[in-house]
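FAQ

Q: What does a record look like?
A: Structure on top, sequence underneath. For example:
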């Protein structure tokens, strides 16, 4: 094992020498590393002077950690050029043939490039953060706590790993440096949006949620690394000269996988759609298990947090809440304003959002949204249990309000999410003889089959029941 890792270091050393020989890479990195902390320090100073006029202590306490997160991010964006050129750049320079013909395994070659790609921006980011900490310590600003600093360093490491992993995947799949650099926007923009959410959590002060963000980013990073290794083909790097968008091939590949050679609807449902359902069966079992966990998490969160709020609330506030509940529209009025098409479109949109969130995160974000949807059911049941002043037991209300349409809607949600999980697993699994584009088209065809053939009919039935049957059952259970 040591000898195999030694070859990884050999590739990494070669890559590092190439970087230090190129002043066009070093100069911007050094300038940004040394100058950006000074600019951020001046920004922090001016912001502190402004906020002190309004006694904004909460924001002041979080300004320095926020600045550290931004300082750690910018050197990574500059160093991203190195990762984007790791494979396709060598191909254009004509230096990739010797390393591809070397007696190295694919994972050794890939990890050698990845190691340098991650280490270089991290060194620059850590150095920038260290310089900024020295500056703020001399100005008397409050330093972040040790736990927050550890969290910020882990967050910076996670961002670097995520961006570099994505950049190397792009470098392997691109045919020119220009194309790779253009695709870099699909890395920088999503990570910048992600950092906006992390900034909100940072100002909010919830460190536990930030740790979850670190874990989520690292999981996606590891999946990206797995994708790169799974679809790394030496012949693919040497054989392709230019990418051409062949719309006819894309449509033909998708349609052939969607139809599957079926000539009738019955044959399509029995053989083609049945085969797709059998392929996602393990993922569906996993979704059933995740649903149980999500129900418990939603129930537990409401029981712990809402009951604590109720216990601390004064009788006057409880009476205001009860009065507000009595003023809510009656169930009969709500029934008049909700119809089956509205419910169908709303549920279809939810399944589609889970699909797109999972598609761009290797199922991670899609499964999180699925857990949120299922967790709401457990939360609703907990709320009913806490409503001790209701004239009847919460169990019949919950069953009447959820079970009639839920027996169709919940399986549709589980099946739609299981396809997303199956797609994520398939993308990170080596597919010998198939390009990454072919794999994605086949997976899209599978999702479309199941969505149109199973999920949509189930959601349509659920919408009809929820609009025209469930309200009547609830009225009967609640005594009109």
């Amino acid at each position: 094992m040591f000898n195999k890792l030694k070859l990884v270091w050999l590739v990494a050393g070669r890559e590092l020498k190439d970087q230090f020989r190129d002043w066009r890479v070093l100069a911007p990195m050094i300038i940004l590393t040394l100058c950006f902390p000074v600019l951020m320090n001046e920004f922090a100073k001016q912001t502190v002077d402004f906020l002190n006029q309004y006694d904004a202590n909460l924001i002041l306490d979080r300004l320095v950690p926020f600045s550290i997160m931004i300082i750690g991010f910018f050197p990574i964006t500059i160093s991203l050029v190195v990762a984007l050129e790791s494979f396709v750049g060598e191909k254009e320079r004509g230096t990739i043939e010797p390393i591809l013909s070397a007696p190295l395994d694919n994972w050794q070659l890939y990890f050698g490039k990845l190691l340098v790609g991650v280490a270089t921006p991290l060194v620059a980011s850590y150095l920038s953060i260290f310089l900024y900490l020295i500056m703020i310590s001399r100005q008397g600003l409050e330093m972040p706590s040790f736990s927050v600093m550890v969290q910020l360093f882990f967050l910076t490491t996670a961002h670097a790993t995520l961006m570099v992993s994505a950049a190397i995947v792009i470098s392997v799949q691109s045919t020119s440096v220009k194309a790779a650099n253009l695709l870099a926007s699909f890395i920088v923009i999503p990570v910048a949006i992600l950092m906006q959410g992390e900034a909100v959590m940072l100002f909010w002060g919830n460190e536990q949620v930030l740790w979850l963000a670190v874990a989520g980013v690292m999981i996606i990073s590891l999946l990206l690394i797995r994708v790169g290794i799974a679809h790394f083909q030496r012949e693919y790097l040497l054989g392709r000269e230019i990418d051409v968008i062949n719309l006819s091939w894309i449509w033909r590949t998708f349609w052939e996988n969607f139809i599957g050679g079926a000539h009738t609807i019955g044959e399509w449902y029995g053989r083609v759609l049945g085969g797709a359902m059998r392929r996602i069966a393990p993922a569906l079992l996993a979704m059933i298990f995740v649903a149980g966990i999500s129900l418990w998490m939603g129930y537990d969160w409401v029981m712990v947090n809402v009951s604590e709020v109720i216990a601390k609330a004064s009788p006057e506030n409880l009476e205001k809440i009860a009065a507000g509940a009595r003023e809510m529209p009656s169930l009969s009025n709500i029934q008049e304003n909700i119809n089956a098409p509205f419910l169908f479109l709303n549920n279809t949109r939810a399944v589609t959002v889970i699909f797109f969130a999972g598609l761009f995160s290797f199922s991670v974000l899609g499964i999180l949204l699925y857990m949120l949807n299922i967790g709401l059911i457990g939360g609703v049941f907990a709320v009913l249990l806490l409503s001790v002043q209701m004239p009847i037991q919460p169990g019949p209300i919950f069953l009447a309000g959820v079970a009639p349409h839920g027996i169709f809607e919940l399986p549709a949600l589980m099946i739609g999410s299981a396809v997303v999980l199956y797609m994520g697993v398939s993308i990170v699994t080596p597919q010998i003889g198939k390009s990454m584009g072919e794999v994605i088209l086949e997976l899209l065809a599978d999702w479309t089959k199941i969505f149109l053939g199973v999920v949509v009919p189930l959601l349509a039935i659920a919408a009809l029941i929820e609009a025209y049957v469930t309200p009547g059952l609830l009225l009967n259970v609640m005594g009109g």
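Q: Is there anything notable about this one?
A: Residues 247-477 form one domain.
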